[in-house]
Amino acid sequence: MNSIGNISSMHAAILVAVMAVVTFLLRALPFLVFHKQTPPYISYLGRVLPPAIIGMLVIYCLKDVHVISAPHGIPELIAGLSVVGLQAWKRNSLISILAGTAIYMVLIRML
What we know:
Elements: H1 9-33, H2 40-62, H3 74-90, H4 93-110
């Protein structure tokens, strides 16, 4: 018996292969469906959904911050400002998110 339980190596490999094929097909589907022209509503959704999702994530992340009790939301504020500042400066989401997460983790241990 392995660490996964009763799943054999062959069964696990089949599962991974199926997930890889499904992921590839889902990624390729828009190109197959809209091979000539992207409909205007899809272009509209591509413009408005990313900022809306980011806004929802920010609200979700800050929903449990208690400004009345210590540390008064200071780690969240500093980490959030660092993400915004890095994104404005470097225009690289990966760097902004990783640095903001690291700053937040350090601050919650220190404060």
